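$ ./design --mode recover --in tokens.txt
reading tokens...
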């Protein structure tokens, strides 16, 4: 699964703040995401993220960092 910085992820489960939309800040073995509701940033292993993604909105920039 290709996940790039700037992509927006809709997750199956909601964050405790009630929002299920996250923005990708960094990708690699671990993916750093920011909750669009409260702004909390979290590092999560790639495998855990990939299992919980409902949909991906790709940003216009496709550069891999």
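writing sequence...
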């Amino acid at each position: 699964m290709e996940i790039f910085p700037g992509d927006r992820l809709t997750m199956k489960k909601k964050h405790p703040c009630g929002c299920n939309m996250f923005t990708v800040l960094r990708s690699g073995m671990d993916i750093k995401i920011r909750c669009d509701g409260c702004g909390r940033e979290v590092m999560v292993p790639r495998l855990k993220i990939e299992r919980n993604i409902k949909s991906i909105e790709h940003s216009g920039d496709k550069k891999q960092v």
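exit 0
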